[in-house]
Specification:
With 147 residues, the chain is of the alpha+beta class. The protein starts with a strand and ends with a strand.
Amino acid sequence: MVNDITMSTAAGSLTGKDLEFLRRPLHGFLTVSGGQHPQPRPVWFEATDEGDIEIFTAPDSLKVRRLQRDPWASIVVAAPVGERERWISVAGRATVVPEGAHELCSRLAARYWDIGDPARAADLAEILAAEQVRIVMRPEAVRRYAL
């Protein structure tokens, strides 16, 4: 069994294989400490063609408040049980962007949910009725592990 552990600190350092993995409907665990004890939260996310990581959230969320104090964030995404061990960790500065959150939310809902299910469609409508912002993280450090 050969372990392939790679570290990179270059901006925009997600590889094509990283992006392929990150475009699966997996949960990421986002950490935004804001100078306080880290409290990772499971989130939906999107890896963009440019290699950024984007999530959506309410503008008054704890994530946003902590980013206002310290713009550093990280996300860890792991393969589910039953697959070979694999994870990617991305860390970098994050920016809160007021535009595009509802579009991101709609794309992610279609990726994670069956939008044809009336209950899920109602859940999505409720999210879209609320104000949302995007958090855009530009990778500054990427670590990955795969068996």
